[in-house]
């Protein structure tokens, strides 16, 4: 992380520790995935459809990574440019680092919520992730490459935080930490954790988030913390078994449909809309509007 820009005010070894924590959160997925595969195989559930779904998830990382590499440098330069014009700065200490993570997590809650509740954002960067009809570590890799181009709420979080005076490297690290936390929670191998479920984003809470059950739709948006969901009334505990995927499921494993099925629906509704008011509602309304009069996504 320190290759792009440096933060002289940070405590010695601070970013090395952050890098290690992010790496550990990502690498813990490997043993969890091994357990998942063994459990699926031993229960006779590792069939062709499940394997194809896993491979599709992993394949998504290729275009996602390529686009991230292509636009990442420009984003870093833009953040440094903003920082250069901000007339104040917040030194990076352990306290301000914690404050930065909390603020980024709060911003992520709203980014994530917009990704579910506004069709443009739902199609742009989040429907792909929720289109998997199963739940395991590979689902964490099921990300749309268009996210790096169209996820404006995420960019807003980064620029606002830098505008507040936090160092760009700290802001990017904090956002990376929020994202890294969410890899290991894509699993059914870890049950409920009663001492953590109430305030942290755990596997149980994230299973709810991926559910197509009516009582689970649009719940548990937090990245690391569930306190935002509790504060804004979007929290739901895992009570009934979770049925994964979109309400209007994507059964195909073809990369085109995985990435663009919601765009196709949005485009078709846009073309047949009776007026511009309806087109505006389609763009900025909730996903349910794509399937009126049917509820859900």
Describe the protein's architecture and organization.
The chain is mainly alpha-helical and 297 residues long. It has helices spanning 14-27, 29-42, 48-59, 61-85, 94-117, 119-130, 147-150, 152-164, 168-181, 203-209, 227-232, 255-272, 276-284. Helix 1 (14-27) runs parallel beside helix 9 (168-181). The protein is globular, with a radius of gyration of 20 Å. Mean pLDDT is 93; it is low at 293-297.
Structural class: mainly alpha
Number of helices: 13
Distance N to C terminus: 38 Å
- The sequence of SSEs as H and E is HHHHHHHHHHHHH
Shape, per Cα inertia axes: globular
Oligomer: single chain
- Mean of the pLDDT scores? 93
Q: State the helicity in percent bands.
A: 55-70%
Count the E strands.
0
Work out the radius of gyration: 20 Å
Proportion in β-strands? under 5%
Most strands sheet: none
Which spans of ≥5 residues are poorly predicted at pLDDT below 50?
293-297
Summarize the structure.
With 297 residues, the protein is mainly α. It has helices at 14-27, 29-42, 48-59, 61-85, 94-117, 119-130, 147-150, 152-164, 168-181, 203-209, 227-232, 255-272, 276-284.
Secondary-structure map:
Layout: H1 14-27, H2 29-42, H3 48-59, H4 61-85, H5 94-117, H6 119-130, H7 147-150, H8 152-164, H9 168-181, H10 203-209, H11 227-232, H12 255-272, H13 276-284
Helix pairs in contact: 1-9, 4-8, 5-6, 5-8, 5-9, 6-12
